[in-house]
Write a structure and sequence with these properties.
With 566 residues, this protein is α+β, with helices and mostly antiparallel strands. It contains 19 helices and 23 strands. It is globular. The chain starts with a helix and ends with a helix.
Length: 566
């Protein structure tokens, strides 16, 4: 009896704070995931009062976390005593609290409940430019260029623009580390957060300790001399590798979550990194994949949600211009990580659909057929290609091209001033026109991924297989186009919720169920579907990639031309 087996088994709880919602799942030691879509997801509020400013509330996020955990337990029939460990993941947003743990405003509204600057907030463009102007050696570990999405520019913005709030803040956390702090009362930071987003340098055991840690000269040079003066108390003095035990649930957190006091909590991961952890360890023997028999460094993790992240591991550091990293032990202990990314992918597709004159009609059609808008558009694309007697649907966009940098280019250009471009618009306003524009946007996003992969490969990475997760991975056209454009097979995990599985692995490690994160990765993840590239599209997409790269250069020329007026 499945219910009896479930009541006898041990489970690990994974909690993920995404851009717009909190999700939870219970995961067994062999990776079986109990996720209840109607109960295990709760939306969180986002304030977007003006362009490029995005804020949230840590209290709102914590309450949503408590709600989904209780709902997941209730809906699953699992007893709190069966939950042996907890792992938190979340977006790399900045949280400000006072010395007593109360929220401190990061908003020009001065509302203390608005104490989170979201990852996609670009208010600190000038501060990022100033920091990049220092050309400090620390910046070599972020591809040579710091992004306004990282924390140092945001801290500098807060100091300059909200001085009273800056002075009141006792702790600045990355959101995943705030979650473990709220759960355990311990201010331990995960190496994932501080290395990837805070310019903390983590060296190998063979390197001198003087080459690791916070670099006081960097913080002084960029105008945040308070950090070394205060011995870095506000941004972290205690650090753990992902999955290491931070502490047990406090009495209050246990009540809030409906769990037992003392339940182990592991050091956190950023959500995209958790997606990589949740699927990259899957066994591939006998599946005919090029990564079979090769090290995990032959696998690229593609996490495609609101944005897309590209996670590449290596045994030795690879310095890739415009790509974040190399980061040591920030995702998988003992390996270096490079992190490419696109700041708007799922959000871009939604934007393009919402802004088109046929948006309401295609949503109505999707609703009447009981499918998602993406499924409806995918159906339209294939039907239209058949109607036009084309060999394959990619040919619908022969003369329609989208450069997807609507929210700047994170990688590999590291240029937040890049903008989106469309070439090939007509006066058409029907659903077929929307379907083609949507397809061109998907293709543009995939060409962005190829641009990142090619840049990584040029600097020594040797990836030959993509492992994909996130909302975009459930879109058949999105995944097929990525396989076709990159020329690489795409592996989808058996459990769709790879980020939650990765979060649960942190709990499994913190409870000592597995001796290492690598062991948890090998035992708790497995392969689902494999999408192979269509060789018949290769020539077509190579030509489209030439156009993609030309659009980048064209935009740079336009910008330079207009700069002459300044």
């Amino acid at each position: 009896d499945k219910k009896h087996v479930r009541r006898m088994a041990d489970y690990f709880l994974g909690v993920d704070v995404g851009t717009g919602s909190v999700r939870a799942a219970l995961v067994s030691s062999v990776g079986h995931c109990i996720h209840i879509p109607t109960a295990s997801v709760q939306a969180v509020n986002i304030w977007n009062d003006k362009p490029d400013y995005y804020e949230q509330s840590s209290e709102d996020i914590w309450q949503a976390c408590c709600s989904v955990v209780k709902a997941t337990l209730s809906g699953s029939g699992i007893s709190p005593s069966q939950v042996k460990g907890i792992g938190f993941t979340g977006t790399c947003s900045l949280v400000a609290i006072d010395p007593n743990g109360q929220p401190v405003s990061v908003s020009q509204s001065n509302d203390d409940q608005r104490n989170v600057i979201m990852w996609m907030d670009h208010r600190a463009l000038d501060e990022a430019k100033q920091i990049n102007g220092t050309k400090h050696a620390v910046l070599q570990y972020v591809g040579g260029v710091i992004s306004p999405e990282m924390q140092a520019p945001k801290l500098l913005w807060l100091k300059r623009n909200l001085r009273e709030c800056w002075d009141r803040t006792g702790h600045f956390f990355d959101l995943p580390d705030f979650m473990t702090f709220r759960a355990t009362g311990k201010a331990t930071r995960s190496l994932c957060s501080v290395v990837c987003k805070w310019n903390y340098v983590c060296g190998t055991s063979e390197e001198s300790s003087t080459n690791s840690g916070w670099d006081a000269s960097y913080w002084c040079q960029i105008g945040l001399e308070e950090m070394p003066t205060e011995n870095f108390q506000r941004i972290g003095t205690s650090f753990s590798q992902p999955g290491e035990l931070v502490g047990g649930l406090t009495d209050q957190a246990a009540v809030d979550l409906g769990l037992q006091t003392g339940t182990p909590v592991g050091a956190s991961l950023i959500d995209a990194h958790a997606g990589g952890v949740g699927m990259l360890g899957a066994a591939v023997s006998g599946l005919g994949l090029p990564c079979e028999g090769k090290a995990i460094t032959s696998r690229l993790a593609l996490i495609c949600g609101t944005s897309s992240c590209h996670m590449a591991l290596s045994a030795e550091p690879c310095f890739v211009p415009g790509v974040w990293g190399p980061y040591f032990s920030s995702m998988v202990p003992g390996l270096w990580l490079n992190e490419g990314g696109q700041s708007a992918t799922g959000k871009l597709l939604k934007h393009i659909i919402d802004c088109h004159p046929a948006s309401a009609l295609v949503k109505e059609q999707a609703s009447s057929r009981g499918v998602s808008v993406f499924e409806e558009l995918n159906h339209c694309i294939k039907t239209l290609a058949t109607h036009r007697k084309l060999d394959s649907y990619p040919l619908l966009t022969r003369n329609l091209h989208v450069l997807p940098d609507y929210h700047g280019n994170r990688s590999p250009l590291a240029d937040p001033m890049m903008k989106g471009m469309i070439c090939g618009l007509t006066l058409a306003t029907d659903v077929n026109d929307l379907a083609c524009l949507y397809l061109a946007a998907v293709q543009g996003i995939a060409h962005g991924t190829k641009h990142v992969v090619d840049s990584m490969t040029a600097q020594g990475h040797q990836m030959n297989t993509i492992f994909a997760c996130g909302g975009g991975s459930q879109n058949d056209v999105f995944i097929q186009v990525h396989a076709d454009v990159t020329g690489l097979p795409v592996v989808l995990a058996k459990e769709k919720e790879s980020v939650l599985v990765g979060a649960a692995m942190l709990g499994a490690c913190s409870s000592s169920h597995f001796p290492s994160l690598e062991m948890a990765m090998s035992k708790m993840s497995s392969v689902g579907r494999i999408v192979q590239p269509d060789p018949n599209t290769q020539k077509y997409y190579l030509k489209r990639h030439e156009v993609f790269l030309r659009m980048i250069e064209d935009q740079r020329c336009y910008r330079a031309t207009m700069m002459d007026l300044v």
